Amino acid sequence: MSIKKNLLEIKSSLPENVTLVAVSKTKPVSDLMEAYEAGQRIFGENKIQEMAEKFEQMPKDIEWHMIGHVQTNKVKFMASFVRLVHGVDSLKLLEEINKQALKNNRVIDCLLQIHIAEEETKFGLNETELNDLLQSEIFKKLQNIKITGLMGMATFTDNQEQIKKEFLHLKSIFNSLAPTQKSENCNLKTLSMGMSGDYQLAIDCGSTMVRIGSSIFGTR
Ligand SMILES: *Cc1c(COP(=O)(O)O)cnc(C)c1O
Predict the structure, then answer these.
(1) For a pocket test of ligand 1, which of 211, 214, 216, 219 has the largest count of ligand atoms closer than 8 A to its C-beta?
(2) Per CATH, the architecture of 3-215 is what?
(3) Which residues have C-beta within 8 Å of that of residue 65, sequence separation ≥ 6?
(4) Are 215 and 203 in contact (CB under 8 A)?
(5) First and final C-alpha spacing in the chain
(6) Ligand 1 centroid to 25 CA: how many Å?
(7) Ligand 1 centroid – CA 157 distance (Å)
(8) Is 0.70 surpassed by the pTM of this model?
C-alpha cells in the first residue's frame, strides 16, 4: 500500500470542482514528501505547532490548511503562511486572525465551521450564531480576513442516512447564504465537508473540498 497509489486513486475519483486536502496530521515529513512528489500541494494539519514545523521543512509551494480547532493564543504561529483556516467558530477567533494577518500584511482566508453533528462535543456555530457573526459591526470592519466558505463535520456514525441529512443541512445553509452575504470580506465559494469515511457521500451532497487523511496516509 503506497501513499502515492492511494493519493492518485482518490484524486482520479474526484470531480473536477472538488479540491483535495491531504490530511497529514501526526505523519512524518517523509510521508508528506511522498505525497508532494506525487503532485499533492495542499496539506491539512490540526495542530498549529506541528504545521509550522512541517512548513519550515518542506517546499514553499505548498498550501497549508489548518483544519483543527484553533486556540486564539496560537494564531500568531501560523499567520505568516497559513492559506486557509477551516475551523473558525467565533468572532473572537476571527478578530485575532485578522490582527495577526494585519501584522503580516496579508489577508487570511477562513471558513466558518458550522455545527451539524448530533454530538455535543463537535465544535462549530449554530445558525443563530452564524447569522449574528455575519451581521455584527465588528465582523464587517475586519479587512485582513476573508470568509470564503463553510466547513462542517458529520456525526461519527455508520448511519449513512443521518450523515447525508447533516451534509444536506450544511449545503442548504451554504446555498441560502452564498448569494446574500457577498461583501468585501465575505464571498462563500467553498464547502468543506467529507473525510475518508464519508467523502463520496459529501460530494454527492455538494461538497467542494474534501479533507482526507487515513485513506491516503494509512491509519494514525
Ligand atoms: C483528521 C481530520 C480529517 C481526516 O480524517 P480521516 O478520517 O483520516 O480522513 C478531516 N477533517 C478534520 C477536521 C480532521 O481533524
Answers:
(1) 211
(2) Alpha-Beta Barrel (3.20)
(3) 21, 42, 43, 44, 45, 82, 83, 84, 85, 86, 211
(4) no
(5) 15
(6) 9
(7) 14
(8) yes
Query: Is the distance from CB of 152 to CB of 124 less than 8 angstroms?
Result: yes
Q: Are 149 and 173 in contact (CB under 8 A)?
A: no
What CA–CA distance (Å, rounded) separates 153 from 158? 14
Cα distances (angstroms) measured from residue 197 to each of 46, 138, 212, 214, 215: 18, 38, 9, 9, 8
Q: Give the span between the Cα atoms of 43 and 127, in whole angstroms.
A: 29
Quick one: DSSP state of residue 196?
Answer: T
What does the domain layout of the chain look like in residue ranges? 3-215
11-54 pLDDT tens trace: 999 999 999 999 999 999 999 999 999 999 999 999 999 999 99
* pLDDT tens, residue by residue, 102-122: 999 999 999 999 999 988 766
155 neighbors 117 (Cβ within 8 angstroms): yes
Locate 168 and state its grid cell: 444536506
